[in-house]
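dumping this here so i dont lose it
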C-alpha cells in the first residue's frame, strides 16, 4: 500500500492526555478554537495583539496589514525593530541572560555551552567585524557554513547590522553558490575552511574559491573564513580573512541597527518549477513574530525545555527553528554538527539521553532511515537509551507515513509524547498547518489543522472551494505576517508562482495537493502538484536537474526528470536520458549513468543525484513535441502503461524505456 493510500484509511486517533492539556499554553481544543475565532472576527486586531506581545519594537507600528500593493502585502509597515536585539538584547536583565542559549555537540562528540550573555557578546563582536569590512545595512552576505555556533553568530550578526543574509547549504556545489552570488549581488561570503561530517574533513573554502573563479563576482569584496579545523586552506590576500583576523581588536558591543519591519532579513533560495532557484525574500518584523510565536504554540515551549531541531541552517527549518525562533523565545537549544549515523545509527537517541532533550524535531526521512538501522542492528534501537526526558516530538519536510509515525510515537516518544507533524514551506516562514500538543487529537500522517490566523483551504484550479473529502490544491486565503514578500529581483515570477491570476490573484498557492477529512476537516498533504520533488525532505526542481544533465553537452542530447515513490527517501529522482551517441546498454550504461550522477552532484549538489538513469533513443513526445511526463512517471514507478498513447509521436519508445538498464 502506498503511503498516501495508508493515510487515507488511517483511523487511529491519539488525543493529548489530560495532564498535557492542563499544562499547555494553548490548553485544549476550546482554547485553540477561541484563538481561531479571534482571528476570524478581527483579523488585524488579532495580529496587532500578537505583534505587540511577541516582538520588541524600537518604533511601534501603527499600521497592521497593508494590502494596497497586493499580493505584495506589508505587515507592521511603519514599525521598526532589530531581529538580533529581539533574540539577544531582549533577554538582558531577565533570568534568560545567564541561561544556556546553545549546547553545541561536535561531530566527534565534544560539547560546548554558550550562554545568552556570551552569545550576545560574540554576535556583537562579529557584527563589528562585518562593519569593519565595509558591510552595511541592506548589503547581501552569503553564509556557507557548517552547523555550529559560528553559523548562527554569522546570521545574527548580519541581522544586527541590517545586512540581508543568504545561507547556502554546505552540500551545495560551487555552481549553486555562484548562481546565488550573482542573483543576490552579494558583497561578502562567510564560510569555513572545512566542515566535519561523519569523521571526515570536507573542504568548504575550496568550493567558495571555485565559485568566485567562475566569473562575474566583482561585487564580492571579502571572504571571512572560520577555521573549523587546523588544516590550512587557500587564502587570497586582500580578499580573504580568517575569523581571528577579522575579529582582532573588535569590541563586543555593537548597537543593533533598527530596520523597518519590511526590511529583508534574508533571502533563501529554493527550488521551483523552472530551472532557476527562487530567492525567497523574507521580512524582519512578521518573520520574527511567527518564528517566536510558533516556538510557544507548536512546541509549547517552557523555560526548562531543551529544544533540538536537527535541521541544517542552510534550510528554512534551520532559519526559523535554530537561528531565530529558539533565541527569540529564550529557549536552550542543542545544535549538532554531525550526521545521524556516525559513529553509529543510535547517535540521535544517545544525544537525547545525554543532554536530556525534551523537544525533538526532525524529518520523516531521518526517522525512516533510523527505523531501518534499528531493525538490522538491535544495538542502535532507541530502546537502548533512556528517552524519558522527551515531552514533545515533531516532524517536518515531507509527509510522514503512518508506519513511521507509529514507530516514532512508540519507540521514541514512549506513547507519551504528542507528535507535531508541522506542514510549512520556505515561503511560509514558519508552521502553517500543525497540531498543537496540548489541544489537537492526533491522526498519524495528518498535519491536522491550520494555526490560528492561517486561513488554509482546498480549492480547484479556478480558486473555488472544494468540499471536504475531495482532493484539491492547498491555498491560504488571507496573508499572514511571516509569508514570503517577493522573489528577489523577480516580482513577476512571485505573482505568477504564488498568486496566479486564474485563481483570482489573491490566494496564496502552496504548490501542494491536499485533502480534508470529511468528518474532522483535518488536512492531509498528498504531495507537490508542480514539478518539484521532495527527496529526503529536500526540495529539488525537476527542471533544475534536467538543465544540469543537458549542460553536459559532449554527451547528453535530451533529458527528462521525474520522481517516483521511494520507501526511504519519500521520493527518488529518476532521469530519462537521450545521449548524443547511440543508446548504451549493460556495463557501459552503468558507467555512463555514474558519470552523469557525478556530474549532477557537481552542478547542483550530491542531494540531486538521480537514483535511476534510463537511456532511450528518444523520449515519449506528443506530436507537438511536448514530453509526456505522466507516462515517464508511470514507467519510473514500474507501472503498466494503461493511459492512452495514441497521441504519441513515437509510441515504440515506451517499451525501450521500460527496460531497466
Ligand atoms: C519546511 C520545509 C516545503 C515542502 C512543502 C511540502 C513538503 C513540508 C510537510 C510537507 C507534508 C509536512 N512538506 N512539511 N509535506 N507534511 N509536515 O520543509 O520547507 O524545504 O520549502 O519544503 O515540503 O511539499 O511544499 P521546504
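and the seq i came up w/
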Amino acid at each position: 500500500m502506498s503511503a498516501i493510500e495508508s493515510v487515507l484509511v488511517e483511523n487511529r486517533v491519539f488525543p493529548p492526555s489530560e495532564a498535557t492539556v492542563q499544562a499547555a499554553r494553548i490548553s485544549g481544543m476550546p482554547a485553540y478554537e477561541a484563538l481561531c475565532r479571534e482571528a476570524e472576527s478581527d483579523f488585524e486586531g488579532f495580529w496587532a495583539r500578537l505583534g505587540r506581545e511577541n516582538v520588541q519594537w524600537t518604533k511601534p507600528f501603527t499600521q497592521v496589514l497593508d494590502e494596497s500593493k497586493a499580493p505584495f502585502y506589508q505587515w507592521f509597515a511603519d514599525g521598526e525593530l532589530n531581529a538580533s536585539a529581539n533574540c539577544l538584547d531582549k533577554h538582558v536583565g531577565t533570568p534568560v541572560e545567564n541561561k544556556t542559549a546553545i549546547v553545541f555537540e561536535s561531530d566527534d562528540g565534544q560539547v560546548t555551552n554558550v550562554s545568552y550573555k556570551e552569545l550576545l557578546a560574540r554576535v556583537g563582536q562579529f557584527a563589528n567585524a562585518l562593519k569593519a569590512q565595509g558591510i552595511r545595512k541592506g548589503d547581501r552576505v552569503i553564509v556557507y557554513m557548517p552547523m555550529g555556533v559560528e553559523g548562527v553568530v554569522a546570521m545574527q550578526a548580519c541581522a544586527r547590522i541590517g545586512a540581508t543574509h543568504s545561507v547556502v547549504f554546505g552540500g551545495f556545489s560551487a555552481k549553486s553558490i555562484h548562481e546565488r552570488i550573482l542573483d543576490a549581488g552579494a558583497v561578502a561570503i562567510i564560510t569555513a575552511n572545512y566542515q566535519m561530517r561523519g569523521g571526515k574533513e570536507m573542504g568548504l573554502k575550496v568550493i567558495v574559491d571555485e565559485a568566485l573563479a567562475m566569473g562575474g563576482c566583482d561585487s564580492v569584496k571579502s571572504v571571512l573564513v572560520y577555521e573549523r579545523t587546523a588544516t590550512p586552506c587557500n587564502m587570497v590576500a586582500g580578499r580573504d580573512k580568517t575569523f581571528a583576523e577579522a575579529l582582532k581588536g573588535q569590541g563586543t558591543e555593537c548597537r543593533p541597527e533598527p530596520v523597518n519591519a519590511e526590511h529583508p532579513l534574508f533571502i533563501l533560495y529554493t527550488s521551483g518549477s523552472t530551472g532557476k532557484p527562487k530567492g525567497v525574500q523574507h521580512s524582519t518584523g512578521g518573520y520574527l513574530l511567527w518564528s517566536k510565536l510558533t516556538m510557544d504554540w507548536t512546541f509549547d515551549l517552557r523555560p526548562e525545555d531543551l529544544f533540538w531541531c536537527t535541521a541544517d541552517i542552510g534550510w528554512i527549518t534551520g532559519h526559523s527553528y535554530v537561528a531565530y525562533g529558539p533565541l527569540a523565545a529564550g529557549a536552550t537549544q542543542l545544535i549538532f554538527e554531525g550526521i545521524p549515523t556516525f559513529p553509529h545509527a543510535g547517535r540521535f537517541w544517545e544525544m537525547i539521553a545525554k543532554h536530556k532533550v525534551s523537544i525533538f524535531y526532525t524529518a520523516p526521512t531521518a526517522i525512516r532511515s533510523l527505523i531501518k538501522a534499528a531493525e538490522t542492528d538491535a544495538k542502535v534501537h532507541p530502546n537502548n537509551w533512556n528517552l524519558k526526558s522527551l515531552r514533545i516530538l515533531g516532524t517536518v519536510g515531507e509527509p510522514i507515513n503512518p508506519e513511521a509515525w507509529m514507530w516514532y510515537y512508540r519507540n521514541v516518544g514512549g506513547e507519551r509524547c504528542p507528535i507535531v507533524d508541522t506542514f510549512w514551506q520556505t515561503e511560509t516562514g514558519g508552521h502553517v498547518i500543525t497540531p498543537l500538543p496540548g489541544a489537537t487529537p492526533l491522526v498519524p500522517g495528518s498535519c491536522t489543522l491550520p494555526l490560528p490566523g492561517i486561513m488554509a483551504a482546498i480549492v480547484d484550479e479556478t480558486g473555488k472551494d472544494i468540499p471536504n473529502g475531495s482532493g484539491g490544491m492547498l491555498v491560504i486565503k488571507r496573508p499572514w505576517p511571516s509569508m514570503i514578500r517577493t522573489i528577489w529581483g523577480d516580482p513577476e515570477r512571485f505573482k505568477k508562482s504564488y498568486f496566479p491570476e486564474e485563481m483570482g490573484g489573491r490566494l496564496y498557492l502552496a504548490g501542494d495537493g491536499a485533502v480534508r477529512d470529511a468528518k474532522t476537516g483535518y488536512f492531509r498533504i498528498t504531495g507537490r502538484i508542480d514539478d518539484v520533488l521532495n527527496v529526503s525532505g529536500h526540495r529539488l526542481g525537476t527542471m533544475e536537474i534536467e538543465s544540469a544533465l543537458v549542460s553536459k553537452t559532449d554527451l547528453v542530447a535530451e533529458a527528462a526528470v521525474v520522481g517516483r515513490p521511494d520507501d526511504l527517501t519519500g521520493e527518488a529522482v529518476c532521469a530519462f536520458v537521450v545521449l548524443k551517441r547511440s543508446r548504451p546498454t549493460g556495463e557501459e550504461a552503468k558507467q555512463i549513468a555514474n558519470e552523469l550522477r557525478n556530474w549532477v552532484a557537481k552542478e547542483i549538489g550530491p542531494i540531486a543525484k538521480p537514483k535511476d538513469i534510463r537511456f532511450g533513443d528518444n523520449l515519449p513526445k506528443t506530436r507537438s513535441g511536448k514530453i509526456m511526463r505522466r507516462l515517464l512517471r508511470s514507467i519510473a514507478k514500474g507501472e503498466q502503461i494503461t493511459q492512452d498513447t495514441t497521441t504519441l509521436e513515437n509510441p515504440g519508445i515506451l517499451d525501450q524505456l521500460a527496460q531497466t538498464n
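Residues 96 and 414 are 31 Å apart (CA to CA).
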